[in-house]
Amino acid sequence: MPLASTRRTGLVDQVISQLRAQIDSGEWGVGDRIPTESELSDQLEVGRNTVREAVRALAHAGLLEIRQGAGTFVRASSELGGALRRRLERSRLRENLEVRRALEVEAARLAALRHSEEDMAVIDRAMGLREEAWRTRDMGAFVEADFTFHRSVVNATHNTLLMDLYDDIAQVVYASIAHTAYEQSDEASDRPSSATEGIDHSGLTEAIREADASRAAREATCYIDELLSLTED
User: Residues annotated as region Disordered (predicted)?
Assistant: First the structure.
């Protein structure tokens, strides 16, 4: 939508609103690269300086991330998410795991109550990929599959606020999965130790399938507590 007719005063605010609308609508998702400064200037029919100021404002708010030489990327879907992500990036691993427990235990409970057949198929597929990656000791694939599994459980809650919050902390969730998966590994082979191998999600998967909310919550609590036991204070 061109903004050429907008008076100069407050023009930056108008551009900020327009860019935020692209994020709010989902047209630009978290992790997506947004159009270049020049492209946005042409699309909105405003000067590049105006676009630059608007992008910087949204970067300061935590919604965008400017990467020199690579472009500008969506970092969070809301100011709250941006602030939360910045805070979590400064936190210790133990604190991150405790936040994960707060969200994932409730997610497990709700997923057991609300999941659809399609949700269950996604969870099963993620579990299969996770198990295969572990069997072949492909740790990169294991981390990806484990993250996909946890995200699929959250998505099975059909609670959009919970899903958005989880997306906002996705980066630190992924980092904590990678850290704990490799922490006990042999430095020479990068193979996880038996301590990490003991973390199994089959019980959680079956609890969700059987709509056993109490058991699902217990299973989620147990695996987070086990991860916490592998970390230092």
Answer: 183-204
